[in-house]
Design a protein that fits this description.
Layout: H1 3-8, H2 19-24, H3 29-32, E1 39-43, H4 48-52, H5 61-69, E2 73-77, H6 88-101, E3 104-109, H7 121-130, H8 132-140, E4 145-148, H9 156-175, E5 180-184, H10 193-203, E6 208-211, E7 218-221, E8 231-234, H11 237-244, E9 251-255, H12 269-278, E10 284-289, H13 296-316
Parallel strand pairs: 1-2, 1-10, 2-3, 3-4, 4-5, 5-6, 9-10
Antiparallel strand pairs: 7-8
Helix pairs in contact: 7-9, 9-10, 10-11, 12-13
Length: 317
Amino acid sequence: MNRKQFFKVGGGAILSFPLSRFLTGARRKSEIKTELFFAISLAQWSLHRTLNNGDLSHLEFPAFAKNEFGINALEYVNSFFRDKAEDRTYLDEMNKRCADLGVEQLLIMVDGEGGLAIADDQNRIESVENHYKWVEAAEYLGCHSIRVNAFGQGTRDQQMQSAVDGLGRLSEFAKDYDINVIVENHGGYSSDGQWLSEVISQVDMENCGTLPDFGNFCIRRENGAQWSGNCVEEYDRYKGVKELMPHAKAVSAKSYAFDEKGQETTIDFSKMLSIIYEADFSGYIGVEYEGSGLSEVEGIKATKRLLEEAGSKITEG
């Protein structure tokens, strides 16, 4: 009995979905049933402060997404249920709550399990294997993908070689679960659209793709910090999204702040959505508010409203 068979035995009913959904992470436009060319999901990170301070639990997230925002599709972050990946009782409860609500579980953003472009072969393989449980959990929850990080060390070419190996190994494992392995522009060379696009092309597997994020295009920060500190080298966000869209199986609409007209102050959503539309993408775009000027609830609403307004203009045009 292999790992996949073991995970399924005794785990209760698993939601079934068309195979094409797992492979593409997208839906046909006729299935979305909206005037927009895309559907809207909610990235759990948008509520990270609310979740971290205990005002909302992970299990309450699906109902909150639907009742507060009218969003019926979820993008989880593994840090909010880190010790539950192999807890079938807990995953059954997640499935039950979402099924009762009519809410779809789309993907799991995986952090803290190691970068897949680590230079050392043994450490990189360990990082790959750390992700196995999240592949299995994603399948159990009916997700189409896990989002991973292509962090590593060395030169541009060295990290590319390591990333191709790490992503290839994990994608090979994940294909038996009909799960996509998708990489977000998330700092370092992964925020270089040309680099990441080339990595995915070299992996050359149907279930290995990208999750373009409207933000997160800082390649290098002062003092070599991963997240803190001023950005000293930034990739053009519109060029980056355009380069990543041919491999996209999901998209993240990052937002930070809004002006009095409801426009995002640093990101042209209309321009971004035009790029996405021209790439013939018709899947989910996730709301991911990361600002501090508005509350998380109001920031999510502002981002969703802007996506709807900008998206409807493109469709009407």
